[in-house]
Design a protein that fits this description.
single chain; 463 residues; alpha+beta; SH3 type barrels; five-stranded antiparallel β-sheet; disordered N terminus
Length: 463
């Protein structure tokens, strides 16, 4: 449920319930009359009471027939006057909220501090302060719903058009058709391809006949008014007549200045004045022309165009430029033209160009990264191979040096293969060692065994 819905319903219900209460007179025969006591005398009481919900009647009863009288208190009367404050109208500004809060509501709280309705009135004040805070934050109330600045920015073209259309509807409800058509003309000039303008066409076609009825009545009454004014002049003394005529001519001069200004601006709906027959007749002619013009508009095509354009705005706000371009193309095909459309087209084209350039820059950057990585990989592979080659060369050098040392003492083996030289050398060394040992064991001369030890023998030889 929206911000307004629940709280406004509760408070409105409170006002509705209390609005049923009124003065009541209970007669001795049991009859109860509820309504408003409009007159009292020593002999009788007159009350306006409800016969049904929609029918009122006035009745006077004798005091001698009255059993009990209950009068509505002053705070009850004052509280009833507050009915209708909520829900608030659309498009109120902060100053208008202050006027409501500081007017009848604050007056009630000051005048009836002990009223049982004080809490309810304070709830209304608090609700209005919340709404005022929303207004000050940039939000707008349309058709009873609050629209934030962020939401409005997604399609500001149609949002602005909705505001103008809401003002047109407000003026129409008040019966100010001249001002209503001024707002309609603003929609035509600034928001021709908006959803609101398409909806306003139907509303305008409903208003035009009503406006013509009023102008017809004014046209017929013109002669009567003029005659009455002349009669009033005749009844005035010269001084009063002069002052009145000067004031009248001054007002008519200001009116003609407004007409000239509107004509300079090439406005369709010119100002009217009840004392200017030409302006009334001109407005009636405008009604005929505009009715014919509006009836010729293809509302289905208009709606298709306005919806496509709105979708284009929304797609731009979400960053979907491709679909935005497609929707704008639909709107243009159906005849959408104007500064807003040109600006949107430029925004989409520039956005797509920037996106393309960004993608190209990203692709170049990615390619450069890939090239650098490949270059680093190749460099690393080369360095690794170089290291391996250097290690292999070093091993070969060591092998070569080892072979050179062996070649100094050992002849080279014959070509054709066979046992490796080192193996042969090892075998030769082993064989020589074995031969030496065997020679010592088997070729040593036997010595005679004596009872003397070697030490003793050695000692005797010394002596």
């Amino acid at each position: 449920m929206s911000h307004k819905s629940f709280s406004h319903l509760i408070i409105a219900f409170i006002f509705f319930i209390n609005n049923l209460s009124a003065d009541s007179i209970k007669l001795k025969n049991g009859t109860v009359l509820e309504g408003k006591i409009v007159e009292e005398t020593t002999e009788s009481i007159t009350i306006e009471y409800k016969v049904t919900k929609s029918i009122n009647d006035i009745k006077t009863v004798k005091r001698s027939d009255v059993l009990e009288i209950q009068k509505e208190s002053e705070d009850e009367k004052a509280f009833k006057k507050l009915n209708g404050i909520l829900p608030t109208d659309d498009l109120l500004n902060a100053e208008e909220y202050d006027e409501i809060i500081n007017g009848p509501l604050t007056e009630f709280l000051n005048n009836f501090p002990a009223s049982k309705h004080k809490g309810k009135v304070q709830e209304v004040v608090d609700e209005l302060k919340k709404e005022k805070a929303l207004i000050e934050s940039g939000s707008v109330k349309l058709n009873g719903n609050w629209i934030s600045p962020e939401e409005a920015a997604k399609d500001n073209y149609n949002h602005s058009a909705r505001i103008v259309f809401a003002k047109m509807q407000t003026m129409s409800k008040k019966g100010n058709f001249q001002e209503a058509f001024n707002y309609f003309e603003e929609l035509q000039n600034k928001f021709l391809h908006s959803i609101a303008y398409t909806n306003a066409i139907s509303a305008a076609l409903e208003i035009l006949p009503k406006y013509d009825i009023i102008l017809t009545r004014e046209e017929k009454a013109y002669q009567i008014r003029t005659k009455e004014r002349e009669e009033q002049y005749r009844s005035m003394d010269a001084q009063d007549k002069l002052r009145t005529e000067q004031a009248f001519q001054s007002a008519m001069k200001k009116f003609q200045e407004k007409v000239k200004e509107a004509q300079t601006m090439k406005k369709v709906w010119l100002p009217i004045n009840q004392w200017d027959l030409k302006s009334i007749q001109g407005a009636r002619q405008t009604i005929l022309k505009e009715t014919k013009k509006l009836e010729s508009i293809n509302l289905t095509a208009n709606r298709t165009t306005s919806v496509a354009l709105s979708n284009a705005f929304l797609n731009v706000s979400s960053g979907d430029l491709e679909n935005a371009k497609k929707e704008l193309a639909v709107a243009k095909t159906n005849g959408a033209r104007g500064k807003a459309i040109d600006d949107l087209s430029d925004k989409i084209d520039n956005g797509l160009k920037e996106k393309e350039e960004a993608e190209r820059a990203a692709a170049i950057a990615a390619a450069e990264i890939e090239r650098k990585e490949k270059e680093d990989s190749e460099k690393e592979a080369k360095e690794k191979k170089k290291a391996e080659d250097e290690a292999l060369a070093a091993a070969k050098d060591i092998q070569k040096n080892s072979n050179s040392n062996i070649n100094l003492t050992t002849p080279e083996p014959e070509e054709g293969g066979g046992i490796p030289l080192q193996t042969i050398l090892i075998i030769i060394v082993v064989l020589l060692s074995v031969s030496t040992v065997c020679a010592k064991v088997f070729l040593k001369p036997k010595e005679e065994t004596t009872g003397f030890s070697d030490d003793a023998f050695d000692s005797s030889e010394d002596s």
